[in-house]
Amino acid sequence: QVQLVESGGGLVQAGGSLRLSCAASGSTSSNYAMGWFRQAPGKEREFVARITRLSSITYYADSVKGRFTISRDNAKNTVYLQMNNLKPEDTAVYYCAARHTGGTVAVGSNWDSWGQGTQVTVSS
Hints:
The protein has strands spanning 3-7, 10-13, 18-25, 33-39, 46-51, 58-60, 68-73, 78-83, 92-99, 113-114, 118-123. A hairpin with a 6-residue loop joins strand 5 (46-51) and strand 6 (58-60). The protein is mainly beta.
């Protein structure tokens, strides 16, 4: 099973940008589709973005489409989430996830491995 470590979170003003990174170890990340989820205080975890294993096809939640970009560097075993035009409602703990199975991408139980999360706070 792959181990995941997120970094890059922080405090930013509305309209600003952050780039999250997710470093994978223990297995080659190219064996996995990779994704990002987030969980705001008092809310359930929600899907943010996914990138496929080899062809790097991306898919986004409607709430972030056009503002966030997921990408991967398989040589570095790292996945990124570039977040632009951040809004206060983007405030959450962001989690990196990996999977090599199928199922609905937005369902957390269809993902095999999770990172510990990184806090993103957007001030108004």
